[in-house]
Design goal:
Blueprint lengths: L13 H6 L38 H8 L6 H9 L1 H4 L13 H12 L5
Amino acid sequence: MLCIVPAYADGPDRGRALFEPCRACHTLDPNAQPTAGPNLAGLLGRRVAGDSEFDYSPVLRQARAEERRWNRAMLDSFLTDPEAMFPGMWMTGRRIGDAAERKALAGFLADPASR
């Protein structure tokens, strides 16, 4: 997944802008079915590979079996380098090198309605 983030996005809308390219595959609507990627509504606190309607790659199913849960630190590591965290996952994740951008995106994912 290659993502381009608008340079003009700043402040509380930064996380929303950072998530925009992800909408091609993911939704944050808790009532929506997954699309090309799993539904990310309620991501923080839930188990890895926690969308029961989505067929995850074996490495993510293994993380689910290990009872791993998404928290901000884990999400930060994932956004830094998805492939390093879950080698062999099917999603082509983009790396977000900027810590402020990762924090903004994690904040948006934690509570998209407030942003």
